[in-house]
Each structure stands twice: as structure tokens, then as C-alpha cells.
Amino acid sequence: MWLRAEEFPGWAVSGGGMESESLFRGKWLALKRTQGGWEFVERVHHCPGQSDGVDVLALVSGGDLGDETRVLCVLVYLQAVHSVSIELVGGLLESKEDLGRCALREVQEETGLQATLVEAFGACHSDPWKSTETSALVIARVDLDDEKNQEWKQSLDQDEQIQVVYFPVEGLVEALLGMYLRKAE
Hints:
There is one protein chain. Strands 4, 5, 6, 7, 8 and 9 form a six-stranded mixed β-sheet that branches. Strands 1-2-3 form a three-stranded antiparallel β-sheet, with no helix packed on it. It has two domains: 1-44, no CATH class; 51-184, Nucleoside Triphosphate Pyrophosphohydrolase. It is mainly β. 14% of the residues lie in helices and 39% in strands. The N and C termini lie far apart (39 Å). It has two helices and nine strands, in the order ββββββαβββα. 18% of the residues are buried.
């Protein structure tokens, strides 16, 4: 939970209204510096109190999985760190898009699968000491027996490289750790 700096009038806090200068502004991010010298990244289209994007916990069942439920993840090549990352499906909200619609769109674009919304939770800061970025957790379900999921095709941006993987709910931590340890060998 985050409390606004204004709620603590006796505190000598910085940032809650402190002016900052823009050092760089791109399409998605801006680099800023406060009067005190603190540097941080700001989402260009950031709306305080709203989520910038979603992380989707998509639970997959049906098809070859039968009644077993697995977690839908993606292997994504991340240019910034020159590495492949294991992630939940996710992405940024588009203009006038709500969390649920964004989550279902991101699942379709990144995996080619159609999902149904279960629940969306509010925004949280994932890295507040150096970024204004927020993300909301959205839970969705994917039924591989649904006719819309029989033949699926990803809708990736030109510079995206994404591979779909499913991890068993039971033993998820061990499966992820096993992938990490195999990579280290």
C-alpha cells in the first residue's frame, strides 16, 4: 500500500510535488532528475493512480492437459539485458482500455490464445525507487478445448521474440528453479 507524501505534512519528504527536469524523453520513457539530484524513469503516458500495464496470471487447462491446470508463461528476449526472461504475459494499457481488456489482448497477441477474465487487481509500483511504472495483476483462464484455441497465431511486434511455455501449478517454483539451474551449468 502506498500513502501519498501529502498525508505526512510534518515529514521532510522530497518528490511529492518537487520539480524535476527532463533529461531525455522517448516514445515510452522519460529520464528525469529532481532538484536534489535523484534520477528516475517515468512512463511517458503515466496517469497517477492508474495502472500503466498488466501482468496476467493465465491458468491453462483442457486439450492435451486434460483437467491439469498449468500457468501460461512466455520466454521473451529482452534487448535491454540481452537475455531471455521467463515471464507472465503482460504489457501496457492502450488509450481508454481497462485492465481486463488489456489482459485479454496481451494474451492473444503474445500467445495467440483466447482467454476469459477472472479478476483484476489494482495497480502497484514494481520498482518505485527508480521508476513511476505501475502494473496490475489480472487472473485469466485459457481453455484449450475452446474452438477459438484450436489453431492459434501470435500477433507479435516486429522486434518481439516470444515463445509460449506452460508450467504446472504444483511444483511451479521447482520447475522455474530447474530451468535456471540448467542454464547455469
